[in-house]
Specification:
The chain is of the alpha/beta class. It has helices at residues 13-24, 38-47, 64-74, 87-99, 112-118, 120-130, 183-193, 212-222, 276-286, 304-312, 330-336, 349-355, and strands spanning 4-9, 29-35, 52-56, 79-84, 103-107, 174-179, 200-205, 226-229, 235-236, 240-243, 249-255, 258-264, 291-295, 316-320, 342-344. 34% of the residues lie in helices and 22% in strands.
């Protein structure tokens, strides 16, 4: 089997050392080089072009975003961003995702070596996932984890499944969207296309803690509708999109004819927190036929079971089609289990939300 060629570009010697050790221990991966900055990296890449690049954003001589844009213009390649878990790091990382990065690995300023050892499965599975991503010129996409050692829990650990159809229909529609690999750019395309007056939207995008607030803020600046990182008890109202915070699960609740979100702690579900399955189950239980469920590009199967529960509860369900996905994983699993009524290209999702 052909091994995945990986290049590490990071000014942290600790990061380069630990990543080298982890990659060298996996028979599916081949380290083709390390570089302390993009200038050195470009020299390495002249000798051998990698399949996946693991890239820091704050480096001497050339910053990671400038380097990323150069790669995406010249020879699109899957890039995983390594960013510090700080407000500044989060904002810069969101710029990198918009420029074509495919995944985020958050790293602390202190205790990096022990953190990387603990997060070894996440890093390795992100690299393997990124190698499958279909990146495009001036736009690439992410990688979600696969084959992690943690137990794969279901949404049952957060809330029980609904029994039959939920409450009677109201005039309030709810759109629930779940996505992972490639989702940041997919969500941007959808939300930018929506007018200020549109149904209330709840979103799970697999993303580390501290990055979702910066992601929501960026979308809020460029969209007509309001976009924010969800807080507990936020109302789901027309013209607003709520994004589940990284590191927390998001549920939908109903009080009379009004909907609001509940933000809760809990174990990983389908190896994710937030989990699409948790949100979709909650929407199935309290919104039923008032809801539209949409599953977008991503690796793995998070969201498939929850979308089926939504369909069984009377909701309309959509999947992004294979051709427009960066990674046709989550939508494929949803189609396979019978959860999807219609598959559509990404460019058609906004109109389905408005008129479908």
């Amino acid at each position: 089997m052909k091994r995945i060629k990986v290049l590490i570009v990071d000014d942290s010697a600790v990061m380069r050392q630990v990543a080298t050790s982890l990659i060298g221990a996996d028979p599916a991966l081949e380290l083709v080089g390390t570089a302390a900055d993009p200038i050195v990296a470009m020299e390495r890449m002249k000798q051998q072009w990698p399949d996946v690049i693991v890239l820091d954003v704050e480096m001497p001589r050339m910053d990671g975003i400038t380097f990323l844009k150069k790669i995406m213009q010249e020879r699109p390649t899957p890039v995983i961003i390594c960013s510090t878990l700080t407000q500044k790091g989060a904002q810069t990382t969101i710029e990198a995702l918009a420029a074509g990065a495919v995944a985020i690995i958050g790293k602390p300023k202190l205790g990096l070596k022990s953190f990387l050892r603990d997060a070894a499965d996440d890093l390795i599975s992100a690299i393997k996932g990124a190698a499958l991503a279909r990146v495009k010129r001036l736009g690439a996409r992410p990688a979600a984890a696969s084959g992690a050692t943690a137990p794969k829990l279901s949404a049952d650990v957060i809330l029980s499944a609904g029994q039959g159809r939920p409450m009677t229909q109201t005039t309030e529609r709810v759109v629930a969207i779940g996505t992972s690999t490639g989702g940041t750019q997919a969500l941007e395309e959808i939300l930018v296309a929506l007018p200020r007056v549109c149904p209330g939207i709840v979103i799970v995008q697999h993303m580390p803690e501290k990055f979702t607030a910066a992601f929501a803020a960026r979308l809020d600046r460029i969209c007509e509708l309001s976009v924010k990182e969800a807080q507990n008890a936020d109302r789901v109202v027309p013209g607003r999109a709520l994004i589940a915070p990284g590191g927390k699960h998001m549920l939908l609740r109903r009080s009379g004819a009004q909907y609001h979100v509940e933000i809760v702690d809990g174990p990983l579900v389908n190896r994710h927190r937030p989990s699409v399955n948790v949100l979709f189950r909650a929407v199935a239980k309290c919104a039923g036929s008032n809801a539209l469920g949409v599953i977008l590009t991503g690796m793995g199967d998070d969201g498939a079971a929850g979308l089926l529960e939504m369909r069984n509860a009377g909701a309309h369900t959509l999947a992004q089609d294979e051709e427009s996905c960066v990674v046709y994983g989550m939508p494929k699993e949803a189609v396979k289990c019978g959860a999807v009524q219609k598959s559509v290209p990404l460019s058609a999702v906004a109109s389905e939300i408005l008129y479908g």
